[in-house]
Specification:
Blueprint (H helix, E strand, L loop, with lengths): L2 H12 L2 H45 L5 H9 L1
């Protein structure tokens, strides 16, 4: 059987109505799971933005000649 015919056969076999229904149901469950996680990710993004801004304010508050020292202490 040539390669194209084999792929066609596999594809047609996979596209039976019951398999399509199962795939659609699984996709629906995955989308619902994503919707449930979105608020958690939104909070994480918000928190990360706050922490980034806070770090920027702290860095800006340090005298320019001490920026290298401040970076070393933050890594330490």
């Amino acid at each position: 059987m040539p390669g194209g015919a084999r792929v066609e056969s596999i594809l047609l076999e996979a596209l039976t109505p019951d398999r399509i229904a199962i795939a659609v149901a699984a996709l629906g469950q995955m989308e619902e799971g994503g919707r449930q996680l979105e608020p958690q990710w939104a909070l994480r993004r918000e928190r990360a933005g706050y922490e980034t801004e806070r770090a920027r304010r702290q860095y800006d508050a340090v005298e320019p000649e001490n920026h290298l020292v401040a970076r070393s202490l933050e890594r330490g």
